[in-house]
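dude i think i finally got it to work??
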Amino acid sequence: MNFNSFNFESALKEGLDAMGFEKPTPIQELAIPVIMGGKDLIACAQTGTGKTAAFILPVLNKIAKSGAPNLNTLVLAPTRELAIQIDQQIQGFAYFLGISAISIYGGGDGIVWEQQKKALEEGAEIVVATPGRLIALLAGGKIKLDSLEHLILDEADRMMDMGFSEDILKIVNYLPKNRQTILFSATMPSKIRQFAKQILQDPEEISIALGKTAAGVTQSAYVVYNTQKEELVKHILKQRDYEAVIIFCSTKDKVKSLFKILKKDFEVEAFHSDLEQVEREKIMSRFKNRTLKILVGTDIISRGIDVVGIELVINFDTPNDPEDYVHRVGRTARADSKGEAITFINEKDQFKFSSIENLIGMEVTKLPLPKGFEEGPTYSAGGGKPKGGFDKPKSGAKKKFPSKSGGSKSGERTTSSGERPQRQEARSPRTEERSPRSEEKREGTEERTQRPRANVEIAQQTPAIEKAKEVKSEERTFKTRANSETLPEPKQQEKPKSESKFGTRTNVIKDQE
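look at this
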């Protein structure tokens, strides 16, 4: 089957030929006829399978036939990078059609916003937007969606994870009810199905190789301690002259740290959310043009870029979510090309990696560490967190504690005669020698614990005051009681001005004048 089977407009075919599209991918082969038929659609396919062309080509063909004068299609994407990528692909496909598109996203400077606003005012048939920015435009009356015919949600699962579900429902309220809604997702958890019921009407469903990685990816893993990861990355990168490499870290702090180490020996850039949009676009442009060969980033780029020819993906940290592994690995071996994916697994991550293997339906090869590296931890599918943490001991072996002389099998210490020693005799000299700092702490503790006792002693030393309080209490209850020892009533009392840690201070009785 080829693209001629879809009977696209001749101008659209020219765009496909210019971009080198010859044979449709499985998701394109199944989804395009459904969308051209006007049905709502839920399509599940992982990254790198040609999803963008699957939903854009039939929409472009329909606009080319009808000649829509107003805004016709809205595409929602979770990230700025993905919105820009979709917009660029639309411009390529529509080059000979005369159909315009604009990407709307936050984080840009004033110039970018002016460009976006001008494009909206002049009119664009397709808008690709992030939900947050679009909500702001709708609230300010900057964009009208009355004439919309198509709503497309790309990476719907990612938008759910990022908390955009309520924003999407708000946007849907601005749309005409008579529209075609298309939802694409890399995974299909129950929350996506529940959400789809709210915005789609009697949809068709398509699933392509759910949870599977591309056939052209060679997958392997190293079982390592955290302290071995940085040197292992450098060793791998020195093995050959890679043209395009992505290294994924779990946090932006790790991205920054690894970037500082690698930039001493390699041409590398860090890609994370702290960068301004202009910086991110420059870095991505250099990476696509191969002037930058190594990119270190978080999962923000696991779905937000479409770069053909990435040779190597390194998971510096094992992904927390098995589905994120599929997306990371999906950056390589795109468009039926070949690629390699290497994952670092520490002891803590072994259970997570076992879940990844269950999802992708295969066991990933565990490679021995290269020559010159100390042995890593033993891999176990049910591996968990050791008590001592995950950093390899500097000695390269398990920590050994000095054996106690005469120790019995039960762990109870005994003397050479077999009797249990007294507590004082068993105390080691080391515990007897306290540092000045520990002595200060001990003294401070003793002082704190003795304060209540001091207060009690003060109270015991003032019987006259206690008796005076009893007399006043009895007077308040209007009971008379003869007491020869009762002190004369003081002329004036002062209320306590403060409270101590251990209760209210005793009232101060002024001396009689």
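The first strand starts at residue 41 and ends at 45.
im so relieved honestly
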